[in-house]
């Protein structure tokens, strides 16, 4: 074989290798995005439970999301807390095709003392929620997701409902923080608050160690960002929010705070730095739809986007009302 033929063959191999590499790069860039759903404060009424909520579940199933998070309140706060209600909701959660992560709300445990005065105590209802919805390290749903539970730590072995998981280079951290005042003043608050603070520190430390791109914190309560720190409703959140501000500033990457409770869909940047008194740009609040609006938020993870998350409110047409 002469020198010119050998040279031509070498060039051909280089071109083919370059094409192969480019093709792999294109495939990596065009791989399917990670999408998920955010819901909360539903169902509240019998109509919601039998019609509106199942309709929304069907729509989410058709969207083929990676997972869904329900950020709490699975019944109306004034309705009695019952075993039947919890079992019925479990059955509905298991109808989600993709993993379903459920975070506890005040209506199903802290409010039970008033709504069901002759029944078990709120703390006993909380234990029942753990027994029914957090039996192992798997999420709910027909397909499940393996979760890391705070209860794996001996010091916080009771807090099975505090969870975390990753998708791509994004960390999701779920908490038991109920509205409307985080059960402040009750005996159980002190230890649960300590657990939530520890879980927050652990989450940010994990994200830094693993060079993750963003963090999403999820819970039920509206922490009343817009109220003065001395306000009665803020007392149960001040320590939690102060830590989140500190960790967010140190993290320097997108931090998203998802909650329900107020039944007011919004996406904003509500925190002012305690020193600068200026908006903290890398912190975003997302509040999910809630009764009577039985709709959901479709979220896409795009690690090439500076904000990482792209939000699209999904209005369930069958759940619309005539105005």
- The radius of gyration is 23 Å
Kindly, what is the distance between the CA atoms of the first and last residues, rounded to a whole number of angstroms?
A: 83 Å
Class from helix and strand fractions: alpha/beta
Q: Which architecture name does CATH use?
A: 4-Layer Sandwich
N-to-C SSE series?
A: HEHEHEHHEEEHEHEEEEE
The overall pLDDT average reads 91
Contiguous runs where pLDDT drops below 50 for at least 5 residues: 1-30
Any idea what the CATH superfamily is called? Metallo-dependent phosphatases
Task: Tell me the overall shape.
Answer: globular
Number of helices: 7
Strand proportion: 15-25%
Major sheet: 7 strands, mixed
Q: Could you say how many structural domains there are in total?
A: 1
CATH structural fold name = Purple Acid Phosphatase, chain A, domain 2
Estimate the helix proportion, in percent. Answer: 25-40%
CATH C-level label = Alpha Beta
Strand order of the largest sheet: 4-5-6-7-8-10-9
How many strand elements? Answer: 12
Notable features of this structure?
five-stranded mixed beta sheet, single chain, 7 helices, seven-stranded mixed beta sheet, globular, disordered N terminus, alpha/beta, Purple Acid Phosphatase, chain A, domain 2, 17% strand, 323 residues
Please characterize this protein's 3D structure.
With 323 residues, the chain is an alpha/beta fold. The protein has one domain: Metallo-dependent phosphatases (Purple Acid Phosphatase, chain A, domain 2, 4-Layer Sandwich). Helices cover 33% and strands 17% of the residues. The chain has seven helices and twelve strands. It has helices spanning 3-29, 46-63, 83-93, 112-115, 122-133, 189-209, 238-251; strands at residues 34-39, 67-70, 100-102, 148-149, 163-167, 170-174, 214-218, 255-259, 266-268, 283-287, 296-301, 309-314. The strands form two sheets. It has a seven-stranded mixed sheet with strand order 4-5-6-7-8-10-9, with helices on one face. α3 (83-93) links the parallel β2 (67-70) and β3. It is globular and about 45 Å long. The N and C termini lie far apart (83 Å).
């Amino acid at each position: 074989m002469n020198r010119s033929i050998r040279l031509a063959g070498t060039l051909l191999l280089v071109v083919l290798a370059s094409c192969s590499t480019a093709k792999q790069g294109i495939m990596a860039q065009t791989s399917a995005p990670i999408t998920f759903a955010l819901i909360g404060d539903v169902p509240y009424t019998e109509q919601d439970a039998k019609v509106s909520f199942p309709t929304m579940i069907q729509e989410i199933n058709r969207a083929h999301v990676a997972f869904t998070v329900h950020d709490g309140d699975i019944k109306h706060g004034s309705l009695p807390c019952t075993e039947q209600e919890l079992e019925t909701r479990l059955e509905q959660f298991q109808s989600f095709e993709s993993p379903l992560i459920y975070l506890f709300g005040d209506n199903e445990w802290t409010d039970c003392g008033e709504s069901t005065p002759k029944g078990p105590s709120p703390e006993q209802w909380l234990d029942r929620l753990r027994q029914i919805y957090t039996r192992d390290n798997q999420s709910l749903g027909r397909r499940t997701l393996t979760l890391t539970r705070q209860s794996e730590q001996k010091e916080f072995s009771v807090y099975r409902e505090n969870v975390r998981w990753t998708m791509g280079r994004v960390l999701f951290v779920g908490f038991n923080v109920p509205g409307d005042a985080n059960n402040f003043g009750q005996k159980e608050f002190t230890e649960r608050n300590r657990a939530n603070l520890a879980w927050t520190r652990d989450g940010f430390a994990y994200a830094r160690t693993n060079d993750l791109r963003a963090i999403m914190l999820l819970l039920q309560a509206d922490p009343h960002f817009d109220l003065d720190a001395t306000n009665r409703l803020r007392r149960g959140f001040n320590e939690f929010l102060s830590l989140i501000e500190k960790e967010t500033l140190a993290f320097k990457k997108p931090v998203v705070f998802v909650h329900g409770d107020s039944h007011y869909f919004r996406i904003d940047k509500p925190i002012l730095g305690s020193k600068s008194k200026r908006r903290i740009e890398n912190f975003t609040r997302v509040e999910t739809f809630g009764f009577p609006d039985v709709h959901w938020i479709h979220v896409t993870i795009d690690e090439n986007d500076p904000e990482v998350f792209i939000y699209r409110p999904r209005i369930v047409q069958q759940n619309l009302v005539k105005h």
